[in-house]
Amino acid sequence: MQAISNRTAITGIGWTAFTRSADRSVLALATDASLNAIDDAGLQTRDIDGIVTYFHNQDTIAPRQLVQALGLADCSYQMMSALGGGWACAAVASAAMAIHAGLCRNVLVFRAMKGQSEKSLPARIAAGEDQWSRPFGISHAAARFGPHVTAHMERYGTTSVDFGHLAVTQRAHARLNRKSMMTKPMTIDDHQASPWLIYPFRLLDTCLRSDGAVAIVVSAADRARDSRHGPVHIRAMMGGTLTNQHGTLGTPGLWELYAHRAGEKLYAGAEMTPDDVDLFELYDPFTGICLMHMEGFGMAGRGEAAARLRAGDAGLDGPIPLNTHGGLLSEAYMHGLGHVVEAVQQLRPGGVRDDFCEGAHDHDRAHCRQIRDARVGLVCGECGDSSLILTCDGF
Amino acid sequence: MAAPPLPTPDHDSQPFWDGAKAGRLSAQRCPNCGRFRWPPAEYCPHCHHHGGDWVSLPGTGVVQSFVIVHRAFDPGFEDKVPYAVAHIALDGADGVAIIGNVLTDPVDAIAIGQRVAVEFVDSGPISMPRFKPI
Ligand SMILES: [Zn+2]
């Protein structure tokens, strides 16, 4: 077990509305989600003494701006990483480590952006590592990550229809989530009729762009017992396992992500196997990449994720529920921190609070998205470069 | 109409782009351990020897994988869609794969395992490599 196993917990979660055009600043979005998360934990802003965030393309505010906006008198740790969606779970790990090290009592992790209304245009220069990609027409992440998926299709026979099963499954989950941006029903035919954006991805294989923010509060486990909604413990963590994205180092070929190695290390750190996990919230920028994450984290054997999706195994009542909130494809693009929020909701004693149940969860999929007997959840960021195993209180 | 962004050569990459201007595809090899590396760098990632030799390559290779861009998200490529971008494993430089455009007719005739050869297109200060099937 990792030395930090079960020593820290997620005690608060918060979010704003997810929209295509927020009529407020990124700072306001971050402040709103943060105040919600702090209140959800049963804490006051004065209890927060660390702030962590991450970004891609300079689309966020810095932690120091949130220190000011929240009026914190004291802050012992700030961290801001440029590693984007790969760092979603590492942001939580970083907060937990600051607490475990004794620097902080409660650390706020946030991700805020106006990813749709203020999306940035590609830069006109291609310097540094960009000189090897952007001049050849790679500006969208689908072109950067797509070759992994094309290679997987060639090696294992994975098809666009398989990707459709993932998109349809996640849309069904999103329809049971009050936060979701995409709630229109989707069929395999709808998926297959959607236009190619960047082969092997169609429009309905591709993540949303969103304006909004999410935030979570991480606390020491021994102080977390009395939190308002009960703690969700951090059992194991990995952060920043990124190696060569082009598959020439550390992986056998483009058809495999470094998630396979990261998954082994994560499970070893938790002293668990994939069979112990009740729900998977895996980064899903594109269907095919999420399918590769499924294999990396042991939801399916190599080349076998497509068969599991076709069998319906990833549904809310299947053996391996996946992206129970709808994910980046159908809930909102919150860069992976939304996946952490969902795992926490599923693992709390009261369960998710933003489905359509009135009163107790009854698992009727006309309105309820709560997983039965959810005790262990796994979350990962882009390519599996960071990941978490979370457990319910009393596990 | 915006143009595609041109590469900005730096201390590590200048010899590659100089070679391209002279119609030569090249990669860096470690004089100590003999292994190739990509992208260019001062230090060998295998043995950490300082320095590398630039070696001219035959200019042929194999498509390892690819995408086909149907919608340009960079305005500089709006008049180029659909176009293919591939990872190409270069002959004569074991372990080196570079990103490049592959021109086939039609565009979806590109395939993994296809053998390709480089040609260079003059774009002012830079010559850009691109590949065609052989
Ligand atoms: Zn060497």
Average pLDDT of chain B works out at 96
The general outline of chain B is globular
Report the structural category of chain A.
Answer: alpha/beta
E-strand count of chain A: 11
> How many DSSP H or I helices of chain A?
12
Largest interface: A-B, 38 and 41 residues
CATH class of chain A: Alpha Beta
Class based on secondary structure composition and strand pairing of chain B: mainly beta
How is the topology of this model organized?
The complex is a heterodimer of chains A (395) and B (134).
Chain A: E1 8-15, H1 26-40, E2 50-54, H2 63-69, E3 77-81, H3 88-100, E4 106-114, H4 141-156, H5 160-174, H6 188-193, E5 196-199, E6 201-202, E7 211-220, H7 221-224, E8 232-239, H8 259-270, E9 279-282, H9 287-296, H10 305-310, H11 327-330, H12 337-347, E10 376-380, E11 386-391
Parallel strand pairs in A: 2-3, 2-4, 9-10
Antiparallel strand pairs in A: 1-7, 1-8, 4-7, 5-6, 8-11, 10-11
Chain B: H1 14-21, E1 26-29, E2 36-37, E3 53-56, E4 60-69, E5 83-90, E6 97-102, E7 115-123, E8 126-133
Antiparallel strand pairs in B: 1-2, 1-3, 4-5, 4-7, 5-6, 7-8
The complex binds zinc ion.
Residues 30, 32-33, 35, 44, 46-47, 49 of chain B line the site of zinc ion.
